[in-house]
Design brief:
Length: 589
């Protein structure tokens, strides 16, 4: 179930990315869709500027519109701003190239298409000399970084002769025409590319009536199809995950000796004929069908340790298999566990000398090279020995030949730690990526690419989390797994009479160890409570202490967590781009 949960979180994560617009939104790049700048006289020497700016932030997280105004015509005054669909709070800060006007909320960000209307007065535009020479936009020190698809300049209230309009790079002449249109003068530039500017000029012949031109219609808004795309990504993700899951299940079918349940559990190589061995008759069986081949056995698999049985069933090596290893040592009387007070004490047992050298060394280290160890408090040697058991189990399982592919412990990707890592990555992607993630996934602005993303990410996630399903037991491994499962069923269904039988046969300690290893400790404990085993003989069930006092082992091998503190223009001729006053640059912040 946890594997399915991780795969489902990948599907949900990609759907959420589509819902919040990180993927799937059309992204033509941040730009100005339209600007209309109106210029009119203000007082005896100033000009009033009104900018109607349609800005497309695309998928970028921005606070709002930014305008830097050069101050060679005086610092902008009487600043006003508004927006029909965004925050237009004003912040003015002097910077090296002029005054920076920012519109928006520093504590909030927006994306997509928005309109801003900004008005300000340049008080010293020098109209009294009879010339208009005004940089509408452009600054050699800080050029425009964004394209403006359509830039319109409108001059009202002035009657001009010898009009001039220059658009392009600095010092260029021409490129646009400032033409009279009724009582206004108008110039349109389509497009104004990044790095380019606009300068207008002319001789002031008199004044005209002030005409307030109507604001242009809002650019066509892109449809918000995020919800539909998010909903569409879910079945696509399910298809990707389902395909990977089905492939993993098929690839992970186990080799099983052909025949019935008895053949599967006890089959062996057929007798060779002549000098050539006969082929091993095997068939492939999925994990889901293995249960049908298991029966109920009253004895554990011969020659198998409890921890090995746990690995055969669960196909993983972790702290539970180390606990099974310890319960097996208690069953062999190699170590003893006794409850003393509120704690548990481990001591060497009479069977310690019968262990192989590697296991004996681990037990000595686990005891901290002493005659006894009180469990419940972290012990460095115990923790190292615990990890050494994991290494021992991995090495022996890899060398066992019980798996033909991906034996437990043989590589990364077959443990829950991998799934936990995948979950953390997904959480970062969905909730922690922010604008960085938006930039990284900018290539997924198209719907088709977003749907491909919705297919591939869950499928790749499923590849890792379902990799464990691709494990393939050999025929021998399947036979041992079936015998182990058959014995587990006996332990899980045991009654008091079965415990009595095991006690009389001298098997109570061994069966208790197997109950811990196979996850049947609770069932075996209930059967023990209903048995007739006399109280003095209950010490034979001490392997169960590995299960019931598991917290003592955990706190002994796990170290406690720690925390610490831890450009002015010259001449004002209007003769080329950048040859007027005012101007500056614009963008976003």
């Amino acid at each position: 179930m946890w594997r399915h949960a991780v795969a489902a979180s990948a599907i949900g994560g990609t759907a959420l990315l589509a819902a919040i617009g990180v993927i799937g939104r059309e992204d033509n790049g941040e730009r100005f869709e339209s600007k209309v700048v109106t210029v009119q006289p203000a007082g005896s020497d100033g000009v009033r500027i009104r900018e109607v700016v349609d800005q497309d932030f695309a998928n970028k997280q921005r606070h709002g519109y930014e305008r830097i105004v050069r101050t060679d015509f005086g610092r902008p005054v009487d600043i006003e701003a508004s927006s029909p669909d965004a925050n237009a709070d004003i912040d003015v800060t002097p910077v090296a190239t002029g005054d920076r006007i920012r519109l928006g909320d520093p504590n909030d960000t927006i994306t997509g298409q928005h309109r801003y209307i900004l008005e300000y007065t340049l008080p010293n535009a020098r109209l009294s000399i009879g010339e208009l020479a005004l940089d509408i936009i452009g600054d050699a020190a800080k050029p425009e970084e964004l394209q403006t698809d359509r830039f319109e300049v409108v001059v009202v209230g002035l009657d001009l002769d010898n009009t001039r309009c220059n658009a392009g790079e600095t010092d260029m002449e021409g490129g646009c025409t400032l033409a009279r249109d009724g009582d206004v003068y108008r110039a349109v530039i389509k497009p104004l590319k990044p790095g380019e500017g606009i300068t207008i000029g002319g001789t002031i012949a008199g004044l005209l009536p002030i005409v307030e031109p109507a604001d242009p219609a809002l650019p066509k808004r892109r449809p918000d199809n995020r919800l539909a795309l998010a909903l569409a990504s879910i079945p696509i993700g399910v298809i990707g995950v389902g395909a990977v899951y089905a492939a993993a299940r098929r690839a992970g079918r186990n080799e099983v000796f052909a025949g019935g349940a008895a053949d599967a559990a006890y089959g062996s190589l057929p007798v060779p004929t002549g000098d050539v061995p006969a082929p091993v008759p095997v068939t492939l069986v999925a994990d889901s069908r293995m249960d049908k081949l298991a029966t109920i056995e009253f004895v554990p698999p011969k020659g198998l340790e409890p921890w090995q049985g746990a690995v055969l069933l669960n196909e993983t090596i972790d702290r539970t298999t180390v606990a099974a290893w310890m319960s097996g040592l208690v069953a062999k009387d190699a170590i003893t566990l006794t409850e003393e007070g509120d704690g548990l004490v481990m001591r060497p047992g009479p069977g310690l000398d019968r262990l192989d050298d590697e296991t004996r060394q681990i037990v000595d280290q686990m005891l901290d090279h002493k005659d006894e160890l009180a469990l419940g408090t972290y012990n460095a040697n115990f923790g190292k020995a615990w990890n050494n058991v994991l290494t021992l189990e991995r090495d022996r399982i890899v060398a066992s030949g019980w798996w033909k592919r991906l034996p437990p412990g043989g590589g990364a990707g077959d443990s829950k730690a991998t799934a936990h890592l995948v979950v953390l990555v997904l959480v970062f992607v969905v909730f922690g990526g922010g604008s960085l993630l938006t930039a990284l996934l900018g290539g997924y602005g198209g719907k088709l690419l977003a749907l491909a993303f919705a297919l591939l990410v869950p499928a790749i996630t499923a590849h890792f989390v379902y990799r464990a399903l691709r494990k393939v037991r050999s025929a021998t491994g399947s036979a041992l797994a079936l015998r182990t499962e058959s014995f587990r069923r006996f332990l899980a269904a045991s009654e008091g009479k079965h415990v009595d039988w095991a006690w009389k046969q001298g098997l109570l300690r061994e069966y208790s160890a197997w109950a811990v290893a196979l996850g049947a400790a609770d069932a075996w404990g209930r059967a023990l409570a209903n048995s007739n085993v006399p109280a003095p003989e209950m010490n034979l069930t001490s392997p169960l202490l590995v299960y019931s006092m598991g917290s003592s082992f955990a706190s002994t091998h796990s170290a406690p967590s720690t925390s610490g503190s831890g450009g002015s223009s010259s001449g004002f001729s209007g003769g080329s781009v950048g040859g007027g006053g005012g101007g500056g640059s614009s963008g976003s912040w």
